[in-house]
Amino acid sequence: MPDNCNFISHDVEVFKHLDEVFFAKRMNILHESKKFKKTYLFNNSKAGVDNHYLSIYIDHEKSFLSIKGSIRKWYYGLTSLNDLTKNDFYQAVKRISECLEIPLYKVFQFEIYSIEIGLNIRINVDLDLVLKQAYKFRGLKRQEKPFDNYISFTNSDQMLTMYGKKKQILAEIEEPNKKKWTTKYQRENVKYKFRDNNIIRIEYKVFGGKFNINQKLKIENLGQLITNYKRIYLLYWDIVQDIEFKNDDDSLIEFRPKQGYGKELNDYIGLCFLQIFGVDGMNSLINKLKSSSRRQMRMILKKRIKKLNEINQQTILHSALLNSIKRELVILFWKNKFRSEIKHFLATNNTIK
């Protein structure tokens, strides 16, 4: 579930041994970046298309160490669709500790400067339509990217992104640097693997240092992240429910009576009128009534506005996406052996089947 992260330390005693001699002896997995000073690339030792790096920046004079990148891709491989379980995340952190020869308990104390939690979601609805219809997230403005299948909602300290996983992976394996170290057969094999792929990835990123991380996620360091791993899943579920979708279909809402009484039909007709005339149009009609009737009709209108908003937010598209997300989260609960939490999670979110 955690993906792109930036972990930092200001304890120079922890990383004072990480000098040129240290890295020179481990050039098979750690080598100096040609683009950035004081930066080393931490190889995941996977061959071909699944090769990936974490970036390690060290400034001894400023007592600063930063480890950043996609820890998910680094641990599983670039083309993997797996999302990190608690145990695998722990093993990834442990491997970092062993390779850099930093005690594990010290690595657990590394501050989280930025963190992204994401999920690969297999959906049975049109991916392009999902991306087209998502228009709002917690008041953040939707931003288009210069390439297909990617949208984001962002401000100064948080960002939610949604994109098609297939196009993202296929674009990455065709990058010049990646093509240099892979064969055409390996790349074609990945394309074949993803030929029928209909996966959307939704990621939520928080940045701006430990204060903002703690404010939004209630964690500050790696150790707390592992301890509270279960809560990250529930937090993600809360986040994705706040994505709002618009409906470009101009057709009227569907009549679905629950008990079959005439009142349900009257309420439905009222909602249809509201949908057709809009709030301003309905207010104009109410203003033509006697003053003694206006107050009561405005109260009814207010209730119908609330009801119509609830219906619009629970479109078939939105429900289908939430169902898919819920399924993936249940699978992750199972993989993490959070068995007792599955029943509670399903029971407290029974509006989505």
Question: Quick recap of the structure?
Answer:
The protein has 353 residues and is α+β, with helices and mostly antiparallel strands. It has helices spanning 12-15, 20-24, 71-76, 86-100, 104-107, 127-133, 165-173, 176-180, 184-193, 210-217, 222-227, 229-240, 262-286, 291-313, 316-335, 339-347; strands spanning 2-9, 30-32, 39-43, 53-59, 64-70, 111-122, 134-137, 141-144, 150-154, 158-164, 199-207, 243-245.
Q: Order of strands across the biggest sheet?
A: 2-3-4-5-1-6-11-10-9-8
- Judged by helices, strands and strand pairing, the structural class is alpha+beta
- How many helices? 16
Low-confidence stretches are none
Rounded radius of gyration (Å): 25 Å
Portion in helices: 40-55%
The helix-strand sequence is EHHEEEEHHHEHEEEEHHHEHHHEHHHH
Kindly estimate the percentage of residues that lie in beta strands according to DSSP: 15-25%
What is the rounded distance between the termini? 22 Å
Mean pLDDT: 87
Anisotropy-based shape: elongated
Number of strands: 12
Let me know the largest β-sheet.
10 strands, antiparallel
Q: Can you describe this structure?
A:
It is a single chain. This protein has 353 residues and is of the alpha+beta class. The chain has 16 helices and twelve strands. It has helices at 12-15, 20-24, 71-76, 86-100, 104-107, 127-133, 165-173, 176-180, 184-193, 210-217, 222-227, 229-240, 262-286, 291-313, 316-335, 339-347, and strands spanning 2-9, 30-32, 39-43, 53-59, 64-70, 111-122, 134-137, 141-144, 150-154, 158-164, 199-207, 243-245. The strands form two sheets. It has a ten-stranded antiparallel β-sheet with strand order 2-3-4-5-1-6-11-10-9-8. It has a two-stranded antiparallel sheet with strand order 7-12. Strand 9 and strand 10 form a beta hairpin. The protein is elongated. It starts with a strand and ends in a 6-residue tail after the last helix.
